[in-house]
Amino acid sequence: MFHEHLDHNNTALHSEHQIPNTINTSFKIAVALNLAIVLVEAFYGLLSHSVSLIADSGHNLSDVLGLVLAWGANALATREPTKTRTYG
Questions:
Q1: How far apart are CA 13 and CA 4, in angstroms?
Q2: pTM of the prediction?
Q3: Cβ partners under 8 Å of residue 4, min gap 6
Q4: Is the dihedral of CA 42, 47, 48, 51 positive or negative?
Q5: pLDDT tens readout for residues 52-70
Q6: What is the DSSP string of 43-81?
Q7: Cα-atom radius of gyration of the chain, to the nearest Å?
C-alpha cells in the first residue's frame, strides 16, 4: 500500500490528531434528524394506535442513543494527553 510522507519527520501527518469540526456538525445533524423521526413516529403511532410505528420509534431512539455515545467517544478521543493519561 502506498503511504505518502510530506517530510522526513512526519510532522505534517502525525504531529496532532485533530478531528475536523465537520464531524461534530455531522453528529448534531444526525442526532437531530433521528430524534425528529422518533418524535414523528411516536406521535403518529399513538394517534393511529399503531404498535409498529411505536416500536419503530423505540428502535430509532436506540439509534439516537448510539449516535450520542459515538459523539461522546469522539469528544473523548480528541482530549490532550496528560502525565497520568498518556492517551488523553
A1: 9
A2: 0.68
A3: none
A4: positive
A5: 999 999 999 999 999 999 9
A6: HHHHHHT-HHHHHHHHHHHHHHHHHHHHHHHHHHHTSPP
A7: 20
